[in-house]
């Protein structure tokens, strides 16, 4: 059975969900306050690196991220085919680098449990590191090499998702400024600030950092907060970087256009997306400890985006407990690009009352509602 579906939010999660729903034959409309991909999505570094970023234990969130990483090879090809637009998807592998002997033990512990999940994790010493990345600092004594980790060029990926949605029959309404939910307990009725009315049978909430505004409407506690992430980029010139390099201080991601993306410093600044001197300085002050050649370079580009962080760091994915036609897919923090394929497939499964590809109980949208 197919349905008329509204997706509230045109970021990477909203667009990916809309695309997958349209592929299942549903009549889909995306509503966006500003421009699609204009906040966290288009400003992301595009890392697909769950092994590097999640080092504690294989919880449900790790399983979600890993499942999405493994969806990417096929997913990105399908997005390119439908949209007719190419974008960078690079299986570069990554190096999680450390500077102290004590940190090597932590990497070995991580390697032990990650291998149980199929990680091709190799602990490499300083000599081997230099063969993988000749320009790395001599202070780095070891690293975990993850050949499976990858990255995309986020702005082009989001644009391709948007174009794929349009070509697949999705209606996209942008620059609405505000959208009010007039009714939702049975039929869906939404009205934009300029008076446009949108009606459907199903509603997907993908509002990112603005999701908290819907708490009263849906009688749920939705602690989602905007976190400003600031990033800078360098032109590499004659230097070559081959892998994502991840450390406790941040990450560096080489792009096919000859640039090196350095992220990210984070702070709480409400919905402000301006770039600050101190925010970029937090990046430039340490990155020379990874690549000494950055000492002589200045970023040619700086930018910031809002990351929708939940109280416990996990996204909200699932149905409203009292209205099964309302589906939440929001609060992905800094993992929206990575989690877009698996979230889209979960949303499509939930809308059709099918089994989800991975367990989602941990991400229930009512987990903070008492």
TrEMBL record:
<dbReference type="InterPro" id="IPR036188">
    <property type="entry name" value="FAD/NAD-bd_sf"/>
</dbReference>
<keyword id="KW-0560">Oxidoreductase</keyword>
<comment type="pathway">
    <text>Cofactor biosynthesis; thiamine diphosphate biosynthesis.</text>
</comment>
<dbReference type="Pfam" id="PF01266">
    <property type="entry name" value="DAO"/>
</dbReference>
<dbReference type="GO" id="GO:0005737">
    <property type="term" value="C:cytoplasm"/>
</dbReference>
<keyword id="KW-0784">Thiamine biosynthesis</keyword>
<protein>
    <recommendedName>
        <fullName>glycine oxidase</fullName>
        <ecNumber>1.4.3.19</ecNumber>
    </recommendedName>
</protein>
<dbReference type="InterPro" id="IPR006076">
    <property type="entry name" value="FAD-dep_OxRdtase"/>
</dbReference>
<dbReference type="GO" id="GO:0009228">
    <property type="term" value="P:thiamine biosynthetic process"/>
</dbReference>
<dbReference type="GO" id="GO:0043799">
    <property type="term" value="F:glycine oxidase activity"/>
</dbReference>
<feature type="domain" description="FAD dependent oxidoreductase">
    <location>
        <begin position="4"/>
        <end position="350"/>
    </location>
</feature>
<dbReference type="GO" id="GO:0009229">
    <property type="term" value="P:thiamine diphosphate biosynthetic process"/>
</dbReference>
<dbReference type="GO" id="GO:0050660">
    <property type="term" value="F:flavin adenine dinucleotide binding"/>
</dbReference>
<dbReference type="InterPro" id="IPR012727">
    <property type="entry name" value="Gly_oxidase_ThiO"/>
</dbReference>
């Amino acid at each position: 059975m197919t349905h008329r579906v509204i997706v509230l939010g045109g970021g990477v999660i909203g667009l990916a969900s809309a695309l997958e729903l349209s592929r299942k034959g549903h009549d889909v409309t995306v509503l966006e306050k500003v421009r699609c991909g204009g906040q966290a999505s288009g400003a992301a570094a595009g890392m697909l690196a769950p092994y590097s970023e999640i080092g504690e234990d294989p919880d449900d969130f790790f399983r979600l991220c890993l499942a999405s990483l493994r969806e990417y090879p096929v997913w990105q090809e399908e997005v390119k085919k439908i949209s007719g637009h190419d974008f960078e998807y690079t299986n570069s592998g990554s190096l999680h680098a450390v500077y102290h002997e004590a940190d090597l033990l932590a990497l070995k512990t991580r390697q032990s449990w990650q291998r149980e999940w199929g990680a091709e994790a190799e602990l490499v010493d300083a000599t081997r590191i230099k063969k993988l990345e000749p320009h790395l600092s001599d202070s780095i004594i070891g690293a975990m090499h993850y050949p499976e980790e990858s990255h995309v060029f986020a702005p082009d990926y989001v644009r391709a998702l948007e174009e794929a949605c349009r070509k697949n029959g999705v209606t996209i309404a942008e620059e609405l400024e505000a959208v009010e939910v007039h009714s939702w307990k049975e039929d869906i009725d939404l009205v934009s600030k300029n008076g446009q009315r949108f009606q459907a049978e199903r509603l997907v909430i993908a509002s990112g950092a603005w999701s908290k505004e819907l708490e009263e409407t849906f009688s749920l506690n939705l602690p989602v907060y905007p976190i400003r992430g600031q990033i800078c980029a360098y032109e590499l010139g004659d230097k070559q970087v081959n892998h994502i390099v991840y450390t406790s201080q941040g990450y560096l991601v080489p792009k096919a256009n000859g640039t090196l993306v350095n992220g990210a410093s984070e702070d709480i600044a409400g919905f402000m997306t301006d770039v600050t001197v101190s925010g970029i300085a937090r990046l430039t002050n340490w990155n020379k400890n990874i690549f000494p050649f950055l000492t002589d370079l200045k970023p040619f580009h700086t930018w910031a985006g809002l990351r929708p962080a939940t109280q416990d760091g996990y996204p909200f994915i699932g149905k409203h407990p009292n209205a099964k036609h309302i589906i939440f897919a929001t609060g992905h923090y800094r993992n929206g690009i990575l989690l877009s394929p698996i979230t889209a497939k979960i949303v499509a499964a939930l809308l059709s009352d099918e089994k989800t590809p991975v367990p989602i109980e941990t991400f229930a949208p009512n987990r903070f509602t008492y």
